Every structure is written in C-alpha cells, then in structure tokens.
Amino acid sequence: MLKMYWEMIQARYLNEKGQGMVEYGLILAVIAAIALASFTSMGTGLVAKMADIVTKLGGGT
C-alpha cells in the first residue's frame, strides 16, 4: 500500500512533460516585454526628435 502511494506521488510531482515548453514560453514572454518597452521608449524619443527637426526647419503646424 505504501509503495502504491509512493508511486502516485512520484507520478504526480516528478512528471516533467511540458516543463521545457513552459520555460521557453516564459523566456519568450520576458523577451517580448523587454522588446516592447524598448521599442516604446525608442519610438517616443524618435517622435520628439522628428518634431524638433520640423520645428527647426520652420515647418511647424
């Protein structure tokens, strides 16, 4: 009986199927969040720089 419980515990907690996919998914999510934050920051700076160029050229609206 004790052996049966031990095997059930092992089957439940030592099952590593899909663990790799979860890890890859988490890594992908972190990379996507970092890319989104950096592109957003870079885009905001780029818009400000373009507006400054347009203003200096005298083409402001």
Keywords:
61 residues; mainly alpha; 2 helices
How far from one another are the termini?
A: 83 Å
User: Helicity, in percent?
Assistant: over 70%
> In oligomeric terms, what are we looking at?
single chain
**Unreliable stretches covering 5 or more consecutive residues:** none
Would you count the extended β strands for me?
0
Transmembrane segments: 21-40
Keywords: Membrane, Transmembrane, Transmembrane helix
Protein name: Flp/Fap pilin component
Organism: Sporomusa malonica
Describe what this molecule looks like in 3D.
The protein has 61 residues and is mainly alpha-helical. It has a domain at 18-57. The protein is built from 2 helices and no strands. It is rod-shaped, with a radius of gyration of 27 Å.
SSE topology:
Blueprint: H1 2-13, H2 19-56
Please sum up the structure shown.
The protein has about 60 residues and is mainly alpha-helical. It has two helices and no strands.
